[in-house]
Amino acid sequence: MSSQVLRRPSAPPHEDEALLARLSDRFAQTAADHDRSGAFPRDNFRALHAQGLVALVAPAAYGGGGASLEAARRVLAAVAYGEPATALILTMTWLQHHAIGRTDSRWPGPLRERVLRDAVADGALINALRVEPALGSPARGGLPATTVRRDGDRWKLDGHKLYTTGIEGLSWLSVWGRTDDPEPRVGVFLVPRDAPGIRVVASWDHLGLRASGSHEVIFEDVAIPLDHAVDLRAPAEWAPDAGSQTDIDAHATQQAWTVVLLGTLYDAVARAARDWLLGFLNHRAPSGLGAALASLPRVQESVGEIEALLRSNRVLLDAAAAEVDAGHAPSATASGLLKYSVTNQAIRAVELALQLSGNHGLARQNPLERHYRDVLCSRIHTPQNDAILVAAGKGALAAAAAP
Question: Could you tell me where in the chain the CATH 1.10.540.10 domains are found?
Answer without folding.
Answer: 13-124
